[in-house]
Amino acid sequence: MKIFSIAWRFSRPHTIIGSLLSTGALYFMSAYPQAEVKNQIVLFLLTLISALGCNLYIVGLNQIADIQLDKLNKPHLPLASGEMNRSTARIIITVSALVSVISAYSAGWLMLALVLIVGALGTAYSVPPIKFKKHHFGAAFSITLVRGVLVNILMFLHFQWEIAETLEFPRYMWPLVLFMILFSVGIAWLKDIPDIKGDRNHGIKTLAVNRGSQWVFRGAISLVSLSYLTLVLWGAVGLPGYNTVFLSSFHFVVWVLFLLGSSKANPFIKKDVKAFYQFYWVLFFVEYLFYPLGLVL
Predict the structure, then answer these.
(1) Concatenated DSSP letters for 91-134?
(2) Which CATH superfamily includes the segment(s) 1-169?
(3) What pLDDT, in 10s, does the model give residues 262-297?
């Protein structure tokens, strides 16, 4: 059980679950209109394995690069706590990267391009000389580019091409892309609030270090509220092939829940921010679970 616990914490499970749900949602939204959902299981599994392998490579590399920083900010992680050594972590991320690239190559050229680009950005996020995470703009840019733009557009087009040999990007996908762009900025901002002390000591210039926890927290809440309200109002514009009543009503309800959750969190209390950040990721999961329903309702 201890080995499982170490592996689970090393994988950063919230990111793994996010990759699993986003891959499933994008596959369904691409395959459903063509009634091919049941006939492309090999394509889906290859894509999923590639996405999870790339995810594990990125989060593992980040932990290897930040062992000393994590001893202050995230002492529960296996490398920071000493439960896993650096050599084992290097083997894991090397195998993960190889599995990801091989699976992507087998799945299709667009998936291979996605994995190579995301892998390069993930490396640049953690490793000098670029090390995007050392500055708040670089960190937010890389996280948003990957989670908000590249995954949602390139993976969807990958499925479209492999299933029907088309690169059509339907209008009903743009609200999801916009939402995930703004939501990913919120991830980049909120994740650093509990780590202000350690980041400041190591010269990591996050927005939370530069502007303070309250400003970052309120900014993230405002930004994500804008994303929810945009999708609520988008329902009045209309989306061909998508239930806009569901689009508006669902996001209004979740937005209210989001505001209620944020109202209970004190940005100056580390435990509160961590709890809210976990809730924030649950809303990320919820979006990928429910957004596809607008196609079938």
Answers:
(1) HHHHHHHHHHHHHHHHH-HHHHHHHHHHHHHHHHHHSTTT-GGG
(2) UbiA prenyltransferase (1.10.357.140)
(3) 999 999 898 999 999 999 999 999 999 999 999 998
